[in-house]
Design goal:
Layout lengths: L1 H5 L7 H23 L16 E2 L7 E2 L13 E2 L17 E2 L2 H7 L2 E4 L1 E5 L2 E9 L5 E4 L5 E4 L9 E2 L4 E6 L1 H20 L5 H18 L3 H10 L5 E5 L4 E6 L6 E2 L6 E4 L3 E9 L11 E5 L7 E9 L9 E9 L10 E7 L3 E7 L4 E2 L4 E8 L2 E12 L3 E6 L6 E5 L1 H21 L8
Helix pairs in contact: 4-5
Length: about 425
């Protein structure tokens, strides 16, 4: 009995200790891998939870059924409480989970979808143009030579009745002498049977002088003085500026030539270009305003006077002409500015312009669905202003959309969608699925 009590315990051999150490290391390593595996944010409240399986060593490998990692061969681990990353959404994009800390680092901001009034005004670039109805071409009625040219440079202003140039015309001199001879014959034979014929001849000569360009005042002075004038004065028929000339002092002109052009700039046109989407809302007579850097903060008001019947095939726009008064000739031809046309408004949803990512073929917004999840959603946009976009379909009032850092959210959504798709393609077929 004493031998048994005094016997020392038997020490384990070196092989047994090595096995025990390896077992403890595997347990510790497995525990560390399990603790460090990626954990998604909790699924949004009310969203249907679907199982997803992920490789602990390669988080990009995701699939909706059990299996092994095509890279390292490890068994995929079920992600607890994870919603499937392939949630319904635009092609090539998935819902992403972003923690509050990451949102703060990214500078992510959201804004609610609001209801507002759309279409109260249409803005378009505008260009000042001459009102073609106020262009006056000066024609000469007889052949002659230009003398006393006052219209000597383009842009010179003239008042109605002011001398433009004098025309030395043999036909005009002959018409004056004919008129004076008819007057003398009428006075001589007014008490005879031929008096009425000579009176008619006087009126014919008077009309000829008027046709050649003589004013009623000139004819009355000729009748009083009886003196033939060598030069025919050509005067401005309207107030305006000289916008075209083809003569100089001493130039020869033929009958019916149009050597000068005067333009009345007291009223001008402003040509605006409208997009096809705006054509159904603009009508002739609608009020409009024009502003330009040259006018400072001043706006000139007018109305839509004319809409072209056809679109410009190069720009796919329609030209609208606005008629604007031009006091003091502040508006000058070819001046550029902005046109604002007042049109009836309509109710609709709107979001900040920064919230919409437009690729040219589709418009995408990211909706905050709660608990750190952001869902990509394709929307149909309508009217646009400088700071907001109308949403015709795809969103509801009160939903929150990402307005800042949405490009970063878009990149992460596309990256995760691509990685998940690569994982599905690389994974071996599930023998349990038929």
């Amino acid at each position: 009995m004493s031998d048994i009590l005094n016997a020392s315990p038997k020490r384990p051999g070196p092989g047994r200790g090595l096995l025990l150490g390896l077992a403890l290391g595997l347990v510790a390593g497995g525990t560390a891998v399990w603790l460090l595996r990626p954990r998604p944010a909790p699924a949004p409240t009310g969203a249907p939870s679907k199982k997803a399986y992920q490789c602990p060593m390669h988080p990009q490998i995701l699939q909706d059924h059990p299996g092994t990692c095509p890279i390292c061969g490890m068994d995929l681990v079920e992600m607890e409480g994870a919603a499937t990353p392939q949630s319904p959404g635009p092609e090539g994009m998935v819902t992403v989970a972003i923690s509050p800390e990451r949102q703060q680092l990214m500078g992510l901001r959201t804004a609610p979808v609001e209801e507002g009034t759309w279409g109260g005004e249409i803005r378009s670039p505008g260009r000042v143009a001459v009102d073609e109805r106020r262009v006056q071409r000066i024609a000469v009625r007889s052949e002659g030579y230009v003398e006393e040219l006052r219209a000597d440079f383009l842009g010179r202003p003239f008042r109605k009745g002011e001398l433009l140039f004098s025309l030395n015309s043999p036909d005009f001199g002959a018409a004056q002498r004919e008129f004076l001879a008819a007057l003398s014959a009428r006075r001589k034979y007014q008490d005879t049977e031929q008096g009425a014929n000579y009176a008619a001849l006087v009126e014919t000569s008077r009309r000829r002088l008027a046709f050649l360009g003589a004013s009623p005042a000139f004819i009355a002075d000729l009748e009083t003085s009886g003196m033939v004038t060598r030069l025919l004065p050509v005067v401005a028929p309207v107030d305006g500026v000289l916008t075209a000339k083809t003569i100089n002092a001493g130039s020869k002109v033929a009958a019916m030539d149009q050597p000068l052009e005067l333009t009345d700039l007291s009223s001008v046109w402003v040509v605006a270009e409208l997009y096809e989407s705006d054509l159904g809302r603009v009508r002739v007579g609608m009020p409009a305003a024009f502003s330009s850097p040259a006018l400072g903060e001043r706006q000139l008001s007018g109305k839509v006077a004319f809409l072209d019947p056809a679109l410009d095939p190069r720009t796919r726009t329609l030209k609208a002409r606005l008629e604007l008064p031009n006091p003091g000739q502040l508006l000058r031809p070819d001046m550029l500015g902005e046109v604002v046309i007042q049109v009836p408004g309509k109710k609709g949803l709107k979001v900040p312009a920064d919230a919409v990512l437009d690729s040219g073929t589709r418009s995408i917004v990211f909706v905050d669905v709660g608990q750190g999840y952001f869902e990509p959603r394709e929307v149909r946009s309508g009217l646009r202003s400088s700071d907001s976009v109308e949403i015709v379909d795809g969103l509801a009032k009160g939903e929150k959309v990402v307005t800042r850092a949405n490009f970063l959210v878009d990149s992460e959504s596309r990256l995760k969608a691509a990685l998940a798709d690569m994982g599905r393609k690389s994974a071996p077929p599930d023998p349990h699925k038929h």
